[in-house]
Amino acid sequence: MHVMTVCLGNICRSPAAEAVLVHRLEEAGLDHVTVSAAGTADYHVGSRPHPESVAEGEGRGYAFTTRAAQFVVDHFDEADLVLVMDAANEEDVLALARTAEDRAKVVRLGAFASDAADGVRDVPDPWGQPREAYVRMYDQVEDAVDGLVRAIREDRVDEVVAAQHVAR
């Protein structure tokens, strides 16, 4: 299984989600799952993750090894699951979908959060915000990633994704 995390510029939220997910998958021994990240815009292609995102993530024990990339239609061929951070990212990625199968791979990360039964929340973009926004972002990402890892372990990913698609 290959999971791709996607935000706008691929320097704050999606690399954070990628780092958290890689770490949690390793802890869970789920070595059949790979992870990558991209952004819907080309603003930061080739850049390292945002320093505030890295600082908060490294303080929590995460490693950052990738550089920003832009999400392109070919990523649908590589990814089994495309985790977008917010409704705008979802709309942008879905606009690139060629088929119903492509569309079926796209879900907001918040669909796996512990409070998803109350409605799927977006992961707000912390770019340009104070450090506290990065702290809140990581808290939210960690919660949702923990739910995703549980869903992978319990073979319920398709169920969660389908439930969000019904709500779309």
From TrEMBL:
Superkingdom assignment = Bacteria
Q: Does the keyword Cell membrane apply?
A: no
Principal EC category: hydrolase
Report keywords, A-Z. Answer: Hydrolase, Protein phosphatase
Annotated ranges, domain Phosphotyrosine protein phosphatase I: 1-151
The protein's matches in Pfam families, at most eight in alphabetical order, are given as: LMWPc
- Tell me the active site: C7, R13, D125
Gene3D superfamilies on file? 3.40.50.2300
InterPro entries this protein is in? LMW_PTPase, Ptyr_pPase, Ptyr_pPase_sf, Tyr_phospatase_low_mol_wt
GO MF, one annotated term: protein tyrosine phosphatase activity
Q: What is its EC number?
A: 3.1.3.48
Q: Is the keyword Hydrolase assigned to this protein?
A: yes
- Similarity section: Belongs to the low molecular weight phosphotyrosine protein phosphatase family.
PANTHER family from the UniProt entry: LOW MOLECULAR WEIGHT PHOSPHOTYROSINE PROTEIN PHOSPHATASE, LOW MOLECULAR WEIGHT PROTEIN TYROSINE PHOSPHATASE
State what protein this is by name: protein-tyrosine-phosphatase
The organism of origin for this protein: Ornithinimicrobium tianjinense
